[in-house]
Amino acid sequence: MRRLHPARSEKTPPQAQSLICLKCHSAASTPALAHWHSSPHALNDLSCFSCHQLHEGPQQKVSHDKMAELCYGCHPDVKAQFSLFSHHPVREKKMGCFDCHDPHGSMQPKLLKGSTQRDLCTRCHMEKSGPFVYEHGDVTETCTNCHVPHGSVNRRLLSAAMPFLCLQCHNPGHRSVMNSDSSMKSLFSNRCTDCHSSVHGSDTPDNRGYGTLRK
Question: Of 90, 99, 113, 132, which is most buried by a Cβ count within 10 Å?
Answer without folding.
Answer: 90
